[in-house]
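Input sequence (103 aa), recorded before submission:
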Amino acid sequence: MMTSVDTELMRVLADPLRLKIVHLLAQETLCTTHLVEETGAKQTNLSNHMRVLREAGVVDTEPCGRFIYYKLRPEVLETLAGSFAELAARARTTVETGRKRAC
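Predicted structure, token format:
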């Protein structure tokens, strides 16, 4: 069953720039400078999106000198994927059994 946490995470990942950031971080740990270069976003805009991703638990930070590196937390995405897998299994059962509510 989808939880409020799953719903909030879907809202966070629904933003195209945040989803792009997640895709980039799936490939490697990046600092803000790298993310600005890769996305073309302004630094302040990117920082706001990173705050949202941090607060949602999608990314962790790692200080390195004067830079902050961001890394993806795969277990968060795995939990969401598991929720979708359960939903798909229920839908498959509904389709296969022909279950429908009478009017």
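Checked by second reader. The two ends are 25 Å apart (CA to CA).
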